[in-house]
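Hey, resending since the last one bounced:
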Amino acid sequence: MSSANSLPALRTQPKAIFFTDFDGTITLQDSNDWMTDNLGFGTELRKKGNADVLFGRRSFRDSFQDMLDSVKTPFDQCIAHLLKNIRLDPCFRDFFQWCRANNVPVVVLSGGMQPIIRALLAHLLGEKEVEEMQIVSNNVKARPAMSINEEGGWDIEYHDDSSFGHDKSLEIRPYAALADRPIMFYAGDGVSDLSAAKETDLLFAKAGRDLVTYCENEKVPFTVFNDFSDIQKIVTDVVEGRISVQEAATGRN
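The structure tokens again:
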């Protein structure tokens, strides 16, 4: 196997790895959508941008940049708003504790921004838990000659040069290429997850969200979830050998 330095989730030689989106998957609300809807250009334009990405009319990166450019609120104030308004999936904490007890690393792959993710997880889950969690995402930078905590002073700093800004498949594929590797899961909900949708053994797509539409249109095997209690049951059954990943990929059923 590759070293733990290049593939950190292998450090404990796990039987399975759980990759997951953050916004709208671990949380009930998408923090970037919330900022756009409440501090930026609003829900209607944001939904139009998401639909353009879902049906291939625009790249995620371009649509997402427009969303964030519309938010002029200083960055520290954005985080303060989000801490008051974003809630954790009520079943995620139990799932995360099950993963820790059963040596299943949780790797957060996010199209969002690292400081927001870490602040929200520390607030919602706990500082110690966040320290243990691998988070791969975009970052935040100041605009030229400005501070991120000024009006209009911050901008996203993308993880890579892809059309997604953060191509999540780039993190997953080195694990997938291993001859002897753990079972790999991924959970997501929306257009930022399209790059990861085909990369793991079993994909969980959140009920009623854009990722379900994409999977059905593209014939990508998946299983739907409402909250992390659904995920925990299936992951437990797969890891303990009661069902296969193929049997678990039941779509909307």
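The chain has a mean pLDDT of 95.

Sorry for the duplicate.
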